[in-house]
Specification:
single chain; 3-stranded antiparallel β-sheet; about 70 residues; 3 strands
């Protein structure tokens, strides 16, 4: 069973299949507390995903070209 957060109503439900439309929900979350703090969890996950990787040089050449242009 998972927990889901409705961005439209702020409601948290525990369900295998969420009752909210996909465009209005966040989840699934393992605990009710995570679902209740969906925006904070999302913010933390985004910060982690956006953090630069030391070995990530995928677009380094393009970035360097733009900076030196």
């Amino acid at each position: 069973m998972a927990f889901w957060f409705s961005v439209a109503t702020g409601e948290v439900v525990e369900s295998d299949s969420p009752a909210f439309p996909a465009a209005e929900r966040m989840g699934p979350y393992a605990t009710r507390l995570e679902a209740e703090n969906a925006f904070l969890v999302s913010e933390a996950r985004n910060a982690l995903a956006d953090a630069p990787d030391a070995d990530d040089d995928y677009d380094a050449a393009e970035r360097e070209w733009k900076e030196n242009w």
